[in-house]
C-alpha cells in the first residue's frame, strides 16, 4: 500500500511519443470543458460559476431596461446553454458547486422578476417554465441516454447498456429494467451510466406503481 508520504516522493513517469516528451499539466481545456488531473471536474464547474455570475451581473444592471419576457429570453438563450453543455459533468464535481449554481439560479429568478427577496422560488420557476438545476441535469442525461439506446450516438456506448434478463434473480413484476453497473466508489456512483440507468429504473418503477395504484378499487 502506497501512503500519501510515499506518493509525494514518486516522480511522474516520462511519456514520449515519436521522440517528443509529453508535458504534464494539472488541467487542460478541450472543446470548452476543463479536464483536471483528478477528473473531478471541479475546475470546470468553477469556470461555469464565473460565467453565470457575469451573466447575472449584466441582468441586474440592465434588467430594468427590459420587460419580463425579454429577461426570461435572456436567461434561456444566454445563461441556460452554460448549464446544458455537458451538464452531467456538474454531477461529477463536488456537491458544493451544485449548491452554488442552484443559488445563482435563484438569484436569476429574482432578477427576472425584479425582486430582492422571494419566498418560493419553485413556484416562480414553474410560472416562467424554468426547472431547478438538478432537474435540468436529469432531463439532459435522460435525453442523451435516449439517443444512446436509439443508436444515434456511437454504438460503443450502446453496448454498455443491457436490460435485466428474466434469468437474473430480479423482481420483474413491474416490467423491464436496466442493469445498473455495480460500483463501490463515490466516483463510480457519479458516472453517467450508473446515474442514468438508476434514474430511469426508478422513474419506470414509479410510473408503473402509480398505474397499479390507480387501477386498484
Q: What characteristics describe this protein?
A:
217 residues, two-stranded antiparallel sheet, mainly alpha
What does this structure look like?
There is one protein chain. This protein has helices at 4-9, 42-62, 68-84, 89-92, 95-112, 121-127, 133-149, 155-158, 192-215; strands spanning 16-17, 20-21, 27-30, 33-36. With 217 residues, it is mostly helical. The chain has two domains: 26-138; 160-209, no CATH class. The longest helix is centred in the last third of the chain and has 24 residues, at 192-215. The radius of gyration is 22 Å and the shape is flat. Mean pLDDT is 86; it is low at 166-174.
Describe this structure in a few short sentences.
By secondary structure, the protein is mostly helical.
Amino acid at each position: 500500500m502506497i501512503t500519501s508520504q510515499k506518493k509525494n516522493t514518486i516522480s511522474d513517469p516520462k511519456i514520449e511519443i515519436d521522440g517528443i516528451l509529453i508535458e504534464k499539466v494539472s488541467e487542460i481545456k478541450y472543446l470548452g470543458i476543463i479536464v483536471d488531473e483528478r477528473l473531478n471536474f471541479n475546475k470546470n464547474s468553477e469556470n461555469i460559476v464565473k460565467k453565470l455570475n457575469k451573466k447575472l451581473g449584466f441582468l441586474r444592471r440592465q434588467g430594468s431596461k427590459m420587460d419580463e419576457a425579454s429577461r426570461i429570453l435572456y436567461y434561456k438563450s444566454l445563461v441556460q446553454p452554460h448549464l446544458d453543455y455537458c451538464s452531467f459533468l456538474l454531477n461529477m464535481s463536488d456537491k458544493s458547486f451544485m449548491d452554488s449554481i442552484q443559488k445563482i439560479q435563484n438569484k436569476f429568478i429574482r432578477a427576472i422578476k425584479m425582486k430582492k427577496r422571494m419566498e418560493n422560488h419553485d413556484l416562480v420557476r414553474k410560472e416562467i417554465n424554468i426547472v431547478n438545476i438538478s432537474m435540468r441535469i436529469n432531463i439532459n442525461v435522460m435525453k442523451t441516454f435516449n439517443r444512446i439506446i436509439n443508436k444515434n450516438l456511437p454504438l460503443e456506448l450502446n453496448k454498455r447498456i443491457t436490460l435485466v434478463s428474466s434469468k437474473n434473480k430480479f423482481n420483474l413484476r413491474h416490467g423491464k429494467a436496466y442493469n445498473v453497473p455495480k460500483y463501490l466508489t463515490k466516483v463510480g456512483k457519479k458516472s453517467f451510466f450508473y446515474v442514468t440507468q438508476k434514474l430511469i429504473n426508478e422513474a419506470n418503477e414509479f410510473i408503473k406503481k402509480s398505474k397499479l395504484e390507480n387501477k386498484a378499487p
